[in-house]
Amino acid sequence: MPVVNVQMFEGRSVEQKRKFVADVTRTICDSLGVAPESVRIMITDMPRENVAVGGVLSIDKTGK
Q1: 5: closest CA among 32, 33, 40?
Q2: Per-residue pLDDT, 31
């Protein structure tokens, strides 16, 4: 059973997430030869103020 954990900045719509999980599931099935029902995808939405790169919060890099 493939398990995929995805962390991304919050703000994407449910429709975008639906497309994303469908595309990722299809790719995993094609690559690994597994059934879609065996694929698990967990999405964690993260606020920009909770992520830093190079000592700078992402919220400060984007101006949001």
Answers
A1: 40
A2: 98
pTM of the complete model: 0.84
Residue-range definition of the domain harbouring residue 37: 3-62
| Residue 47 appears among annotated catalytic residues | no
Identify the CATH number of the domain in which residue 28 sits: 3.30.429.10
Total domains in the chain come to 1
Residue matched to tokens 């101006």: 63
pLDDT tens digits for range 14-29: 999 999 999 999 999 9
pLDDT, position 57? 94
Among candidate residues 1, 2, 42, 51, the one labeled active-site is 2
